[in-house]
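Incident log entry.

Two folding requests arrived from the same account within the same minute. Monitoring flagged them as a possible duplicate submission, but the sequences differ. Recording both here for audit purposes.

Request one:
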Amino acid sequence: MRNDGKLSAILLTAAFGAAGCTAEERQFANICDTAILCDDFESGGTGDKPGGKWRTVEVGGSVVVSSENARSGSRAVKITAAATSMNADFRTVMLALDDTSVLPPEGNVLYGRAMMFIESVPMQAGGVGLVTGQGRVPGQTYKAYYRYGVHHPIIDEGTGAFLGSQLTAFYDTPEYYEDPMSAPHTACWAHSHEVAIPVGRWACFEWKFDGQNNAMQLSVDGYGVPGLAVKETGDGCTNPDTPTAPWVAPLFSELYLGWESYLPDEARAIWIDDVVLATRPIGCPE
């Protein structure tokens, strides 16, 4: 399979669509036997906040258990991000996990899987975070995060048609933006090889945040995403003094799943189901 330009976006997106998953409750239970956390959100009441070890972050949106769209069973978590404007462009609407009985993982290597149904994505450029692992950098006083999301539109060069939003890895040290700043300036990225995120259907997202090797990996529907297996450093950073700043991994004591963005945009919705965290590879439902 070629990984160049427009053809890569079309072929890989088609391949993701061909690898459909049909999860069974029995298989999910077997995975959970060795996992550090499993949740299919079936125990939550419709309209309630997700329970158990989860908490929610709701700046510009809401996080609730919903029965309107589920990958397995009858319930999933619905993330609703409100519309934003030029003067108020920040949203962070997330399922959050920072329970010390679960995180950080043994050896600081976190495998995760989430089934996600992303209703729509922006057609303009702008970073959107979907999966984030965060914590203090060992030996430092500041936090860093590893993140997967989307960044740029993929456009057909011949017709100008919008083909999708490009999957991207991010690294940042968020306390740089505080007043006073208390972290170095990083704001780094690594772009996929024009691979568009699946939209309008359930897709299986698997990630590995490897704190031992300052590395991260992403697969979608069982396919490793070209360009998003990052080790040590990515494609670039916004700080002109350190354009290839090292992606020094934090101790992964926090996990966020949902929608975070900093751009004027319309309202967005995501459903999340069948979340598994483990210390070894998990795999997609069959």
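Request two (distinct sequence, not a duplicate):
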Amino acid sequence: MHDLVPTYLGEVTSRITAIADDASRGALDGAIDMLVDSIRAGGVIQAFGTGHSQAFAMEIAGRAGGLIPANAIRLIDLALYGSLATADLSGSGLERNPAVVEELFGLYPIHPADVLVIASNSGVNGSIVGLALTAKAAGHRVIAVTSLAHTMAVTPKHPSGKRLSDIADIVIDNRAPYGDTTVEVGNSTTGGSPAKVGAVSSITAAFIAQLLTIGVADRLAADGSTPPVYISANIPEGDEHNSALEATYGNRIKRGAPKPSPTPTEKQPMEQPPIPNERLVSNEQ
């Protein structure tokens, strides 16, 4: 294990450095401009990811140092606010199902100025591509965070035959390799088959999310306005500060689950499309 620490560190830092170099050369400026224009127009950043890429949406929306006008679109909301049962949330069938995106999109009061930022390492699953298409059809701009190395090496799963990168107005490469993993363990001398571990897309995507947040806040501050950002809820006056700014956007940003209904109705699980045998465990990023 100890000799693999520098190996993995090198894989992570080389990719973080590459993204930082891209940003220093202005590669993120177009996305930052788009987000700043949205906020100035009263818009909200709508962030979406499935599987491990839900972590990207959580970096964008609702955390200390994050922008107040940001909302995480989540598949779980189809059960919390929509028509699906909690049983529908298990496995990877939902993230691959393009049929759920219209209901998902309709759960949120999305305004014309809102921009969608969609993260997906593979960039090919049905809900990811479907939401991007739905957003574009409604006139919204879309920013994609994806692995170009991976998405160009796999077949799109959406009926349109499109990838997320085909739909987005701006594409940001998260620099993850095909398959996401970077470190090989085990070999013939140890009696087992080699295995690949050391995924990197969650780390690089989080770095991109923070660079976008920093860029937007810096641009707003440069114009003389105070960036609307969260402070930690675990410091004095944190809750008061955050709640006051959240109130500006009313129900346009969701934080947490809804209050339970006094007369809950039982929801029936939806029929799931068949899941291809080659991926029994979701590794959507």
